[in-house]
Amino acid sequence: MKITTTALRLALLLVAAVSALVRVPEDPERGDVPGWVMITLMSAVLVAALLAIAGPALEGLFNSAIDQVSR
């Protein structure tokens, strides 16, 4: 019985060692896709909000600059 237990332990140790060598490590450069999606959406919403608030002022500034260049 003791030989069987020792052989079983040795077999389990061997399987664990081989599986550790064969296992593919995770890619540290994979990134966080949902995080990037959230950042992109938040940036788009921020740009849209700023454009809605400052749009008329920016349009007036642009038209004024074009008028000065056209003269």
Layout of strands and helices, then pairs:
Elements: H1 2-22, H2 33-70
Provide structural commentary:
With 71 residues, the chain is mainly α. It is built from two helices and no strands. It starts with a helix and ends with a helix. The mean pLDDT is 79.
Structural class estimated from helices and strands: mainly alpha
Biggest sheet overview: none
The assembly state of the depicted protein chains is single chain
The whole-angstrom Rg is 32 Å
Helix-strand pattern, N to C?
HH
Mean pLDDT: 79
Number of strands: 0
The helical percent reads over 70%
Q: Give the domain tally.
A: 1
Shape: rod-shaped
Strand content: under 5%
Q: What is the terminal-to-terminal distance?
A: 103 Å
List the uncertain runs. none
Distinct helical segment count? 2
Descriptors for this entry?
mainly alpha; 0% strand; 71 residues
Short description:
This protein has 71 residues and is mostly helical. It has one domain (2-70).
